[in-house]
Amino acid sequence: MRAYERLQAARDAERPTARAYIERLFSERTELHGDRKYADDPAVIGGIGLLGEIPVTFIGIERGRNLEERIQCRFGCPMPEGYRKALRLMKQAEKFSRPVICFVDTSGAFCGEDAEERGQGQAIADNLMQMMALKTPIITIVIGEGGSGGALGLSVANRVYMLENAVFSVISPEGCASILWEDAKLAADAAECLHITAEDMTEFGVAEDMIPEDFAHFSRMCESLKERLVLDLKGYSRTPGEKLAEERYQRFRKLGRWAE
Amino acid sequence: MNNIVGLFRKSRNVLEKGGITPVVEEKMRCPSCKSYETKRAVAKNKMVCPNCGHHYRIGARTRVKALFDRDSFQELFANIATVDPLEFPGYAEKMERGRAVSGETEGVLCGTAAIRRQPCAVFIMEPQFMMGSMGSVVGEKIARLFEYAEENQLPVVGFTASGGARMQEGILSLMQMAKVSGTVGKHGENGGLYITVLTDPTTGGVTASFAMLGDIILSEPKATIGFAGRRVVEQTTKKKLPEDFQSAEFLLQHGFVDVIVPRNEMRQTLERLLRQHGGKGAML
Q1: Which CATH architecture has domain B57-276?
Q2: For residue A226, how many other CB atoms are within 10 A of its CB?
Q3: For residue A82, is it within any domain?
Q4: ipTM here
Q5: What gap in Å lies between CA A115 and CA A182, rounded to an integer?
Q6: Is the CB of B228 less than 8 angstroms away from the CB of A115?
Q7: Rounded to whole angstroms, how far apart are CA atoms A163 and A209?
Q8: For chain A, which end, N or C, has fewer CB atoms within 10 Å of the first or last residue's CB respectively?
Q9: A209-218: per-residue pLDDT in tens?
Q10: In this structure, is residue A152 part of a structural domain?
């Protein structure tokens, strides 16, 4: 499939949203709300649950499953309070030595007057810095669209997985085409040039692995994802928090390409 | 004060390299108050309109001259060069144009310097080089600067000016946000002071990473600072935005900037703050 077709697949309204994965993967869930500063952002859901027998903190960007939900969570575009809520839950996870599992699916952080007033940039920046130093494992799964800084705000992880048709991009191909070539209709070309696919991410070292999609057998797909996550967390269970943070830092420190 | 006016008067050649052409009586029209001033008068005033205080965008080298003790600036990491990792159409030409316009090889200048004898590590983004956009090289240079500062116990003063992450390097540009934020965190954990100075424009991925992570955040007056572009916000919300939306003053009001500092007070402000943090790292 070409990059643009994958992008279309990633944005497909029928595709399972974060909530679907959370419900399948974790048992005995308690959903937690609010950033303790301003509000609760319905675009970022999170809480505590069990992955097999391991207590974990789960956080996901939720696009909504029907029109009403989608409007409520702004089609999965988080507000600053969404990022602050995520950070609050992550710090809580660190305190109680719980691993963090994030689900990323967003076209980007919300663009709006109120988002700017409340410091959208500052909220994401804070997540990047604090997540980097978090002394507990973080695993991020990009389940659909990984849209720019808004997706990165939950992706500073020890491991990043991409679903087969998930994408991760610095800018939406539409935005890129309209800025560079003044024609949003060239988005398909831009998608190709930007290298946004799961294969690209593993090649650049941005993602560790790709997860095959099988939405027709969603519970089976989640079962195998669960096994993978349990295995990862068992691998991390004896690693001290400082070392986890250091490994995460080194993972990002080497990203980029240049000549000397 | 190590007189900047004297510096400007001294060497025309040096100045021309920095982007200001002090053809003595040629006039320029201020885009803000529309008054005419001689280029010399504006340059003497650190590229601030003597009539209304409009701050012109200035190149990184010009800022070096306007701010640091004479000859104190030592450039670092100039050897890190751009590759075209995605072979992105038109990128090589854009880079070429950026070099020609700015006289720099990339979008950030890094080094060590002294401000009234206070040593610091500095990065200054170059608005004339592809709008200071951040690709792998900008990210790597700033990351190394924080590591260098941590090793040498120096405070970091960073001037931001950027349109955000550089599209032409795709996801690798986005990842620089996380990478640099990580090095900011490490420098800070070890007690390092980081002062950011936001200049016009500071937007997108730079706002959403190291620009907003300073222990102290200063801004030049009227600088545009934001995450999403004004036009994008207007298109999304179909609402007319207030005049001062995303200005330094707007950010101050909403609690995201500590102080707005006019350019001609920047030197004394930075000196004071650096000194009050114990001049950590007198080893320059």
Answers
A1: Alpha-Beta Complex (3.90)
A2: 16
A3: yes
A4: 0.97
A5: 27
A6: yes
A7: 9
A8: C
A9: 999 999 999 9
A10: yes
For chain A, say whether B101 makes contact (Cβ under 8 Å): no
Q: How far A200 CA sits from the closest chain B CA (Å)?
A: 9
> Least CA distance to B77: which residue of chain A?
A260
| Domain that includes residue A81, residue range | 3-246
pLDDT in tens, A144-191: 999 999 999 999 999 999 999 999 999 999 999 999 999 888 999 999
For residue A224, give the nearest of A138, A137, A167, A164 by alpha carbon. Answer: A164
Interface of A with B in 70-129 (CB under 8 A): 109, 111-113, 115-122, 124-126, 128-129
Q: How many domains does chain A have?
A: 1
Amino acid of residue B166: R
Tell me whether residue A55 is in a domain.
Answer: yes
Residue A128 token pair = 């990047």
Q: Which long-range contacts (CB under 8 A, 24 or more apart) does A26-30 make?
A: A26/A50, A26/A51, A26/A56, A26/A58, A29/A58
pLDDT of B25 higher than 80: no
* Contacts with B208 from chain A: Cβ below 8 Å: 109, 120-121, 124-125, 128, 149, 153
A36: three-class secondary structure by DSSP: coil
Cβ neighbours for B230, distance < 8 A, ≥ 6 positions apart: B224, B241, B245, B246
| A residues 173-232 lying closer than 8 A (beta carbon) to B | 176, 179-180, 193-196, 200-201, 204, 206
* Assigned domain for A258 exists: no
B6 — pLDDT class (breaks 50, 70, 90): very low
Residue B237 has its nearest CB partner, among A113, A168, A206, at A113
Q: Do B177 and A152 lie within an 8 Å CB cutoff?
A: yes
Taking CA–CA distances from B251, the nearest residue in chain A reads A117
Percent helix, percent strand, percent coil in chain A, to nearest 5: 50, 20, 30
| Alpha helices by DSSP H, chain B | 4-10, 12-17, 39-44, 60-67, 91-102, 136-151, 170-189, 204-207, 230-237, 248-253, 263-276
Is the CB of residue B171 less than 8 Å away from at least one CB of chain A?
yes
Output the domain CATH number for residue A178: 3.90.226.10
Residues of chain B with CATH 3.90.226.10: 57-276
A60 phi/psi in degrees, rounded to 5: -145, 145
SS3 A142: strand
Residue of A nearest to B178 (CA): A128
Burial (CB < 10 A; 0-12, 13-18, 19+), residue B7, is middle
Peptide bond preceding A99: is omega within 30 degrees of 0, i.e. cis?
no
A206: chain B residues, CB-CB within 8 Å: 171, 175
| Cβ-based burial of B245 (10 A; exposed 0-12, middle 13-18, buried ≥19) | middle
